[in-house]
Amino acid sequence: METNRHDRILLAHGGGGKLTDDLIRHHILPKLKNDTLAELGDSAKLNLTSEKICFTTDSYVVKPLFFNGGDIGKLAVCGTINDLAVAGSRPVALALSLIIEEGLEFELLEKILTSISRAAAKNNVNIVTGDTKTVEAGAAEKIFINTAGVGVRLPGVDLGCERIAPGDKIIINGTIGDHGMAIISQREGIKFESQLQSDCAGIGELTCKLLECSRGIRFMRDPTRGGLAATLNEISRDSGLSIEICEGEIPINPTVQTAADMLGFDVLAIANEGKFVAIVSPESADDCLEICRNHPLGADAGVIGQVVETRDVPTVELMTRIGGRRIVQMPYGRELPRIC
Amino acid sequence: MLDRIHKAQRVMEAACESLGRQINIMEVCGTHTVAIFRNGIKSVLPERLKLLSGPGCPVCVTDQGYIDVVLQLAERDDCLIATYGDMIRVPGKGGSLETKQSRADVKVVLSSEDALQLAKDNPEKKVVFVAVGFETTTPATAVAVTEAVEQGVDNFLVLTAHKLVVPAMRALLSAKNDNIDAFLCPGHVSVITGYGAFAEIVDDFGRPCVVAGFEALQIIEGLAEICRQLSEGKAEVTSIYGAVVTEKGNVAAQEITAECFEPADGYWRGLGKIEKSTLRLKDKYSRFDALKRFNITETPGEEAKGCRCGEVLCGLIDPPQCSLFEKSCTPEQPVGACMVSSEGACAAWFKYGGIRKSGHRVSG
Question: Closest residue of A to B333, CA-based?
Answer without folding.
Answer: A332
